[in-house]
């Protein structure tokens, strides 16, 4: 049986309240669970101590039994000092896509051509003024 430590939503519409539960991965999100090990109230202030209540001892027990926490619960476990969460590494995420790179190159080429044309016209105007001044 694949166990997961996840959030089970409660509360009413627009007023969420979550239980941190250990459940079979195949059971419904808000359905049957094995044990409730804490709760999470996102409506409370971030520095409120009642925002996240977690039984660290039971969480360690279930982690040792092979339960896999979801991303959000892994953050909570890291804050509680139960389990260290590894930072994700995806350096290509911030890199622009191929089409965006092509558009940027086209823009750069147009800008360069425009600047060269402006420079040529200013040089021609300056040359004409110099000729007019020498005559």
UniProtKB/TrEMBL annotation:
Keywords linked to the UniProt accession: Ribonucleoprotein, Ribosomal protein
One Pfam family recorded for the sequence: Ribosomal_S16
One CC-aspect GO term: cytoplasm
SUPFAM superfamilies from the UniProt entry: Ribosomal protein S16
Biased composition (Low complexity): 122-135
One GO MF term: structural constituent of ribosome
Assigned protein family: Belongs to the bacterial ribosomal protein bS16 family.
Name of the featured protein: Small ribosomal subunit protein bS16
Biological source species: Sphingomonas dokdonensis
Phylogenetic lineage: Bacteria, Pseudomonadati, Pseudomonadota, Alphaproteobacteria, Sphingomonadales
Gene it is expressed from: rpsP
